[in-house]
Amino acid sequence: METSIQNGKFAELKIAEYNPLLASKLKWVNSAIFLSNCLYHHKIRRLEKDEWMELTINNVYNETGLNRWKQAGAVKRLKDLELIETKLAGMPSTRRFKINFELLEQNYL
């Protein structure tokens, strides 16, 4: 019997992490999950603080479990708090996000 999570079915599981402090400060877990996913992608793509990143609805769903409607609510809350900016770009158009790191660092971390 395999005892390590590095092997078998557990090794294939995707695990989404989020920052509980963000959830507490944002007052909504879905926003914290979405923003944590944005921060994760920003880090692994080695983007500059002012760069836009593409995140599709399907990719976010596959990584976090947030469906289209939960993502829409999370994005709306984060935009209302001015923690992210959004735009559509490309052909076909895709969602792009930019994190307001200055506000995030000043008020939420």
Quick structural summary:
The chain has 109 residues and is an alpha+beta fold. It is built from six helices and three strands; from the N terminus they run αααβααββα.
What percent of the residues sit in helical stretches (DSSP H or I)?
A: 40-55%
* Order of strands in the sheet with most strands: 1-3-2
Please write the string of helix (H) and strand (E) elements: HHHEHHEEH
User: What integer value in Å does the Rg equal?
Assistant: 15 Å
Strand content: 5-15%
Tally of helical segments: 6
> Quick one: how many beta strands?
3
Q: Label the structural class.
A: alpha+beta
CATH first level: Mainly Alpha
The total domain count is 1
Characterize the structure shown.
The protein is an alpha+beta fold and 109 residues long. The N and C termini lie far apart (42 Å). The protein has six helices and three strands, in the order αααβααββα. The chain has helices at residues 8-12, 20-26, 29-44, 57-64, 68-80, 101-107, and strands spanning 53-54, 84-89, 94-99. Helix content is 51%, strand content 13%. The protein has a single domain (15-107), classed as Orthogonal Bundle (Arc Repressor Mutant, subunit A). The mean pLDDT is 86. It has a three-stranded antiparallel sheet with strand order 1-3-2.
